[in-house]
Amino acid sequence: MYKANVTITLRASILDPQGKAMQHALHDLGHDSVTQVRAGKHIEMLIDADSSAEAETVATNACEQLLANSVMEDFSIEVLELESASAA
Amino acid sequence: MKFAILVFPGSNCDHDAYHAAKHVFEQEAKFVWHKEERLGDADVVIIPGGFSYGDYLRAGAIARFSPVMKDVIRFANEGGLVLGVCNGFQVLCEAGLLPGALMRNASLRFACKDVHLRVENNATPFTSEAQIRQVLNIPIAHGEGNYEADEATLDELERENRIVFRYCDASGNATSESNPNGSARNIAGIINAEGNVMGMMPHPERCVESILGHGSEDGAVIFRSLVEHVDSAVVA
């Protein structure tokens, strides 16, 4: 069993009003050293696959077909192998 | 003529569209539940506004995989007329029937008000009864209506005259102040290259009779255009 951690973010070229709003709020709290905030999504999937590469392929297809919208979003995937003992 | 109005879990403008088609324009109209695999007999499909599937993941992202959407894509590819309003526009973009995407409003606020739209193209089945550069007063109600596409796509839309409506002021000037959501180039509605699939964020079905819609009947021009187009095609 593998776990895929998917991170979806707005493309760098696209204005992120949510991130801007959070950055303003952080500055109001005195965190002036925060120079940029980008908001995104974190999605976790458990994937029953025979290898890490196979799990990554499944996760990539899932992102391309549904989880991310390529018009405005980029995604990155991290695949971890779960120990069968802890998975049980 | 026959209107087919899709209904997803979370659609909330389906009855408004039905009322406009059936009672105001006295055409045949039916609801089509998202689980249906066939649209059945229809001249125009309306994908109504609302929050299909709770806007989970992204607005329109789940609805596009509904069983009925397969048949809508077939219908569109065969030249059938499809109008997506608000969430329907989002669904059409997610389904790839229209280019680009609708993002969170630049203000981060839900925008619910009457806006002015300038008709940029009246050579479509959806706008043939409107005058070019006519200013329409039609309400919007959305949190994600900020139209974005890459520059090449936007240029192509301009070049091919596929921007059908732009947000503007009462005199028809497309200014940044009159842009309610941050949409690229003040885009409020676009059409596909074939000219049979249109998406728009404003709600024409909410202002087709003066007793509703704050006295504006400006949405009627879209229904009138569709009825005229289909009826004249039948005669010809």
Features:
heterodimer, A: 88 residues, alpha+beta, Mth169, Chain: A, three-stranded antiparallel beta sheet, 3 helices, 3 strands, 36% helix, elongated, B: 236 residues, alpha/beta, Rossmann fold, two-stranded antiparallel sheet, 5 helices
Could you walk me through the main structural features you see in this protein, from its secondary elements to its overall organization?
The complex is a heterodimer of chains A (88) and B (236). Chain A is α+β, with helices and mostly antiparallel strands. Chain A is built from 3 helices and 3 strands, in the order E-H-E-H-E-H. The relative contact order of chain A is 0.33. The mean pLDDT of chain A is 92. Chain B has 236 residues and is of the alpha/beta class. Chain B has one domain: Class I glutamine amidotransferase (GATase) domain (Rossmann fold, 3-Layer(aba) Sandwich). In chain B, the strands form 2 sheets. Chain B has a 9-stranded mixed sheet, sandwiched between helices. In chain B, strands 5-8 form a two-stranded antiparallel sheet. The longest helix of chain B is centred in the last third of the chain and has 16 residues. The chains are: A alpha+beta (88), B alpha/beta (236).
Largest sheet of chain A: 3 strands, antiparallel
How much of the sequence of chain A is in beta strands?
Answer: 25-35%
- The CATH architecture category of chain B equals 3-Layer(aba) Sandwich
CA-based gyration radius of chain B: 16 Å
Percent helix among the residues of chain A? Answer: 25-40%
- Helical stretch tally of chain A: 3
Looking across the biggest beta sheet of chain A, what order are the strands in?
2-1-3
Judging by the overall fold, what is the CATH architecture of chain A?
Answer: 2-Layer Sandwich
The tally of beta strands of chain A, per DSSP, is: 3
- The main sheet of chain B orders its strands as 2-1-3-4-11-10-9-6-7
Which fold name is given in CATH as the topology of chain A?
Answer: Mth169, Chain: A
What count of helical segments of chain B does DSSP give? 5
Give, in order, the helices and strands of chain A. Answer: EHEHEH
Low-confidence stretches of chain A: none
Task: Compute the separation of the termini of chain A in Å.
Answer: 10 Å
Overall residue-averaged pLDDT value of chain B:
95
The CA-CA distance between the termini of chain B, in Å, is 14 Å
Largest sheet of chain B: 9 strands, mixed
Using the alpha-carbon principal axes, give the shape of chain B: globular
Indicate the CATH class of chain B: Alpha Beta
CA-atom Rg of chain A in angstroms: 17 Å
